[in-house]
Design a protein that fits this description.
Mean pLDDT: 97
Low-confidence stretches: none
Order of helices and strands: EHEEEEEEHEHEEEEEEEHEHEE
Strand content: 25-35%
Radius of gyration: 18 Å
Number of strands: 18
Shape: globular
Largest sheet: 7 strands, mixed
Number of helices: 5
CATH superfamily: RutC-like
CATH topology: 60s Ribosomal Protein L30, Chain: A
CATH class: Alpha Beta
Distance between the termini: 10 Å
Length: 312
């Protein structure tokens, strides 16, 4: 009942369909364009006009609560909240405020269980030490989760990437049904990272499984070349791909209770010069998995690629 596709159909045409939960046009703008359209600032890595689209069974209803834009069915909701360029100047406080607003909408509308978050920030690696944008974002997110009473065991799958424009956006999928969250035995839990990675550890699970109306799904968080808590293969794109996909295969084996097959990759590439190699590598190893390639800054400066997965 929930599907992810990548296509060239115009975003407005997709948005008008009543079975479309949300459309993410891969363009270099990060600002609200109306309910159901989520512009993230991330660009497609080639020259094609590509939209990411999530479809559902049943009719979608759209609306706005404060600065939160939402689309919902009886079973699932998508809520998005943008920050302006000026608000990104205090990313910690405004992340906390935005997350609080999003979680408030979920509570108000009866979708108590967020199961997948996406976070797209400008200049995610800017700033030194604890002043790095990503680290301050992590503190704001954690404070919002703590205020909402969300424990680490309930943190959902997530991705956090940097784009090359102004503004930020956070969006979430949530359900009325409780999902199951999983970690990777080959990695330290993200929310238990040592102090060197910031005042507040990242608040997400490595994967989240969900069953809706007898349909089974697995959402694998943005995954990179990390073993334990350390980056492997600095400067070596082939090594980073090998470790990244090893982490993903481990999650498919150990965090996939319904054995959902890989359906789609969303690939984040730091350097445009690496796109062709990554595309060839993934298409040769996983020829049946739909994929989209974007240009993005990864949360660590030494990471060259990050991959998230949808399995259904």
């Amino acid at each position: 009942m929930l599907k992810q596709h990548f296509c060239s159909t115009p975003a407005k045409a997709l948005q008008s369909r009543e079975d479309v939960l949300a459309v993410m046009p891969l363009i270099n703008q990060c600002e609200p364009f109306g309910n159901g359209l989520i512009a993230t600032g991330l660009e497609e890595a080639g020259s094609e006009a590509v939209n990411e689209v999530w479809t559902v069974k049943g009719k979608v209803t759209r609306g706005q609560t404060g600065r939160c834009y939402w689309s919902e069915t009886d079973d699932v909701i998508c809520v998005a909240h943008w920050l302006t360029k000026d608000e990104c100047g205090d990313i910690e406080q405004h992340t906390k405020t935005a997350y609080g607003a999003i979680l408030g909408v979920l509570d108000e509308k009866g979708f108590a269980h967020p199961f997948r978050f996406w976070n797209y920030l400008p200049a995610i690696n800017a700033g030194d030490g604890d002043h790095e944008v990503y680290k301050k974002f992590c503190t704001g997110r954690l404070k919002a989760f703590e205020e909402a009473g969300i424990s680490p065991q309930a943190f959902p799958a997530a991705s956090a990437l940097g784009h090359h424009n102004d503004g930020a956006v956070f969006y979430v999928f949530a359900s009325r049904i409780k999902p199951r969250h999983y970690n990777n035995h080959h990695q330290v839990n993200a929310y238990e990272y040592p102090r060197q990675y910031g005042i507040s550890s990242p608040s997400f699970a490595r994967a989240t499984a969900l069953t809706l109306n007898d349909s089974h799904f697995l959402f694998i968080s943005g995954t990179a070349s990390i073993t334990g808590h350390q980056t492997l293969g600095e400067g070596d794109i082939e090594k980073q791909l090998t470790v990244t996909m090893g982490n993903i295969r481990h999650l498919l084996d150990t965090a996939n209770p319904e054995q959902c097959p890989l359906s789609a990759f969303k690939v984040y590439v730091r350097h445009e010069k690496d796109v062709a190699y990554i595309r060839d590598w993934l298409s040769s190893h996983y020829p049946d998995v739909e994929a989209v390639y974007t240009l993005a800054d990864i949360c660590r400066k030494d990471l060259l690629v990050e991959i998230e997965c949808f399995c259904a």
